[in-house]
Amino acid sequence: MDITAWLIQLRKGAAELVVLSVLSRGEAYGLEILDRAQSAGDLVAEGALYQLLNRLERDGKLSSRWVIDGSSSHPRKYYALTTEGAAQFAAMKGAFADFSRSMSAILEQSK
Amino acid sequence: MTPDDYLRRLEKGLKALPMGERVRIVDEMRSHLAERGGVAVEALGPPDVLAASFLDDYQSARGKAVGAGAMARNLAVVGRILLLIVLWPTAFAFMLIALAGGYVFLAQLFEPALGHVVAFTDPKVEGKSVTFNITSETPAIPPGVIDVAPWKIELIAFAVFAIALTLGVWLIRFTIRRFIVRPAFDAARAKRMEAIHAG
Predict the structure, then answer these.
(1) Comparing C-alpha atoms, which of B12, B51, B89, B172 is closest to residue A50?
(2) Which pick of A60, A63, A73, B1 has the fewest CB atoms within 10 Å?
(3) How would residue B98 be classed by pLDDT, with cut points 50, 70 and 90?
(4) Considering only residues 24 to 53 of chain B, which have any Cβ-Cβ distance to chain A shorter than 8 Å?
């Protein structure tokens, strides 16, 4: 049975939490966020990342600044959590932990 | 597709966004492609799909700002119906006016093939009044009246035709986009989101 479509939905639902989680460790630019997310697994699609960052910034969860530094030939847009974003992350993290516990419980009962 | 081609197509797809928003997105994608190179072109997915996802988000955000919830949605539906009831007849009226203006303009140019159009003012009548006459025979201008010069009639007729046609066409395009294209766009939106998140 092909579970690709289901995995896509799962990834869609978790994408925001993944991005907020990465940024909770500190400021990062797009490619850096992608690399950190993908180091843990196939969690965020490259095409979806920037749309998500754009939306989170518009919603006030992230702030951004352009940085031109000597290590790169082009400017980079760095993102950071705002106070609202940090609160959102904390709430989502807690909710996901509860969800994860419930899922583990139900899966342990299955054959 | 080269990164430059990708950015060009992306920017084209984002035309509907305000310039500031569009520039921000394109600048960021340019930075990403500069660092990732050609590999990113495939990983990001088709530029028109990516552009559409940004547009979807922007339009959702605008919808939220105007007002979400059942009440607002119901009011939006009522508003749309009223808009349709008002806009279509208005567009039709503009097209009829354009047709009339066009006829008068052409009649003046190709007289007498399309009939005669004359306009005159009668100084004996109190207040300014202009009488129009469209006849198939050479018109008889009553004595003592002032014949409005044909070039003035042509000028006015052309202006009426041009303005009414512009407004009519704009209204028709607006209502088609709003009431036909938009629902189809919404229906395809979910598919685009799937494609983006599939990676």
Answers:
(1) B51
(2) A73
(3) very high
(4) 24-25, 27-32, 34-36, 40, 43-45, 49-50, 53
CA distances from B80 to A25, A42, B56, B87, B158 (A): 47, 43, 20, 10, 33
Residue located via tokens 């989101």: B193
Within 8 A of A45 by CB-CB distance, chain B residues are 45, 196-199
Provide the pLDDT confidence category of residue B173 given band limits of 50, 70 and 90: confident
- Average pLDDT for B59-73: 61
- Interval B139-158: pLDDT, tens: 666 666 666 667 777 888 88
pTM over 0.90: no
Closest chain B residue to A77 measured between Cα atoms? B28
Cα–Cα nearest to B134, from B146, B151, B120, B152: B120
pLDDT value, residue B40:
86
The pLDDT of residue B164 is above 60: yes
Among chain B residues, CA nearest to A31? B32
Instruction: Please choose, from the candidates A23, A70, A71, A24, the residue with its C-alpha nearest in 3D space to the C-alpha of residue A34.
Output: A23
Proportion of chain A above pLDDT 70, given as a percent:
98
Taking an 8 Å cut-off on Cβ atoms, the answer to whether B193 and A77 are in contact is: no
Token duo for residue B30: 């340019």
Q: Which of B18, B178, B76, B15 is nearest to A58 (CA)?
A: B18
Q: What is the chain A residue with the closest CA to B45?
A: A47
Please state, in angstroms and rounded to a whole number, the distance separating the CA atoms of residues A13 and A18. Answer: 10
Distance from CA of A77 to the nearest CA of B (A): 7
Q: Sort B149 into a burial class: Cβ within 10 Å, 0-12 / 13-18 / 19+.
A: exposed
Q: Which amino acid is at A93?
A: K
**Whether B27 and A77 lie within 8 Å, measured CB to CB:** yes
- Which chain B residues touch A55 with a CB distance below 8 Å? 57, 61
Phi-psi region of A35 (alpha: psi -120 to 50; beta: other; left: phi over 0): alpha
